[in-house]
Amino acid sequence: MLGLVERLPDIHEGAGKWIRALEEETMGKLLAVGDLKALLARLLGMARMEEVLMKSGLQAAVNTPYLDGASFDQFRPAMWRTLREDYPTKIDPKSLKGEEVGDTVNPANYLHRQLKRWKLETGRNPEGDELMTTLFRTSIVEAMPPPEKSREPETEPEVPDPVVPGDQVYLKVFRRKWNEPRREGPYKVVRATPTAVQVEGSTTWYHLNHCTRVPKIITSLPPKNIEDEPGAGPNGSQEGPGSGTV
């Protein structure tokens, strides 16, 4: 009995943990009422032990060995209820602080694990008590990693405004004597689709990949009409405006 007493937690810190430890130590063993009387007398003293017996409905066991040999199982629920009421768990929020949450931890599994831990440590359900719920939530929040202050706020990529009739564009044109394509214009857009435009003076459709819209700030310049250059269109041909798609 002395060795068992030393292995059990302090009952004054909470009967819930003490009861769990006792049941683990005595698993598979049959306890008698006399065993509990001896254990409680050593822990609490004779007077306090007798008070617990009376409160648990064991008046017949007070000051007499009459029930010492009886099985404790039938009195177990009443005894544990009395001890939990008289020795409630002392909650230390610091000791119940949640484990640090890592980047790879599954949030649902983490909450389930912490909830189970709190039930074992306190003997109470954090979800069924307003104070316990508040303490539990606080411990979870404090365990969360600090926000990454250096992370740049995520911004959505800018979507350019569509080219519409009335806009002016420069066109990428090719001529044999040039080593690289050049842009000419600006030309006024007369028709437009999401992918191509037609400019004033030409029936050719130009893909937007070959166009650069003139910024609004300089669109006050007079637009250049393809017909202003006789015999030369935006496609660089000498045959005038053609048809088709570039």
Automatic annotation (TrEMBL):
Transmembrane segments: none annotated. InterPro entries: MLVIN_C. GO terms for molecular function: endonuclease activity; hydrolase activity; nucleotidyltransferase activity. Pfam families: MLVIN_C (PF18697). The keyword Nucleotidyltransferase applies. Residues 165-212 form the Murine leukemia virus integrase C-terminal domain. Residues 144-164, 221-246 are annotated as: Disordered. Gene3D superfamilies: 2.30.30.850. Keywords: Endonuclease, Hydrolase, Nuclease, Nucleotidyltransferase, Transferase. This is Murine leukemia virus integrase C-terminal domain-containing protein. It comes from Synaphobranchus kaupii.
